[in-house]
Amino acid sequence: MVSDIQNKVVIIGGGLIGKLLHLMLISRGFDISHFEKVFKEKNRTFALSPSSVDWLRSLELPSLFFDSLTEVKSMKIFDSTISNSITLNAEDVTKPALAYMANEKDLNEAIKKKLNKKTNFKKILSDFVIQGEQDHVRLKLSNEQHKASIIIACDGSKSLVRKKISIKSSEHDFNQTALSFELKVKAGKQNEAKQFFLKDSILAILPIKKGIVSIVWSCSSQFFEKLNNYDDEAIENELNLIIGKFYKEIKIVSKKECFPLFMNRVEGIFKDRVLLVGDAAHSIHPMAGQGLNLGIRDIIDLERIIDKRDYMDIGLKGFLRKYERARKEDVVQMGFLTLGLNWIFSNKSSIVSSIIGRGMGMVDKSKFLKQQLIKKAIS
Length: 379
Ligand SMILES: Cc1cc2nc3c(=O)[nH]c(=O)nc-3n(C[C@H](O)[C@H](O)[C@H](O)COP(=O)(O)OP(=O)(O)OC[C@H]3O[C@@H](n4cnc5c(N)ncnc54)[C@H](O)[C@@H]3O)c2cc1C
Hints:
Blueprint: E1 8-12, H1 16-27, E2 31-36, E3 45-48, H2 50-58, H3 63-67, E4 70-72, E5 74-78, E6 85-89, E7 99-103, H4 104-114, E8 121-123, E9 129-132, E10 137-140, E11 145-148, E12 150-153, H5 160-164, E13 169-186, E14 192-197, E15 201-209, E16 212-220, H6 221-228, H7 232-243, E17 248-252, E18 257-266, E19 270-271, E20 274-276, E21 282-283, H8 291-307, H9 317-346, H10 350-365, H11 367-377
Parallel strand pairs: 1-2, 1-12, 2-8, 5-14, 12-20
Antiparallel strand pairs: 3-7, 4-7, 5-6, 9-10, 10-11, 13-16, 13-17, 13-18, 14-15, 15-16, 18-21, 19-20
Bound molecules: flavin-adenine dinucleotide.
């Protein structure tokens, strides 16, 4: 029989991953205490992989959310010359879409509706203490204590929990900043995403609704300095030089947000009944639009291992080791993929550039290679 303590889970961090993990765990009968630093909802747009969307469906979120998704049916990838490209089509792998664009606010709304009304998210300051014991772990706050079988940290890439329990992490600074905003456009193929691997930046254009696309522009420090001094009109002019032949009458229609880009590798994902999930365990370059998907796959693997029912107590080392093994390959592969792509495409050598150009031509002609690329991208 599962004891009260074995059933008790503390989650720290209420971003999308923390909230989705909460939903999964209550569906498995766990008793959750959930803590968050700031209750401020963001309004970003994410590319979700088909398998992430399938899993969200399994949570039985309200259908309104799924109706709000925009299908990405094809993706065109360009090199810096913009004359070489690869086109990936969902129909090449007989799928309805390569990805689905989701609005963070819509997803948060759907999660809120699904969560029990009694669900209580509590505010936490940074002076908490975590104390691991043999059969439980304690979260000590200034005025109260919470005893649980496990603390799961979903507090993002700069995880304070990770620091408090002394899990070392190494940061790779890409020396890039991502600029993100929405653009009103005319023409352009509906439901097609485009990605330009340019000399000083990687420009991703993602369809979010008719006539509106989301821009994620990952810029080298120098190029970002330049853009940061521009007003909207100057940025639109700069964009016109790159995408003018695909999109007309472009206009920035949202606030611009900046994200410094780095990658985090942690030396372990658990210690003494404390587990890291989502960006707290791995943060990667956004070029592949995979960070959130990777966090969702963390939860899917956790759910799968819980469902095997080999362990009554999910804070036990055996359970956590099993989970760590299950996640290793996916996380390492995605880290290498984004690191490698960034290196290849930001390489200034003309030899490398000409190899990229020829390579892209070859891949674009091979249905088999494109199918393999798509299969990895939509997993
Ligand atoms: C420009 C850009 C575009 C992206 N596009 C995509 C995409 O298209 N597809 C995709 O899959 N991924 C994308 N990502 C990655 C994605 O944003 C992240 O992987 C995802 O948001 C991570 O979710 P998380 O809940 O783990 O962390 P976060 O979203 O960082 O949430 C962490 C939460 O913890 C809270 N917190 C922090 N510190 C504490 C503390 N001390 N105590 C309590 N709570 C705390 C924070 O307030 C926050 O609510 C993109 C990233 C960037 C930068």
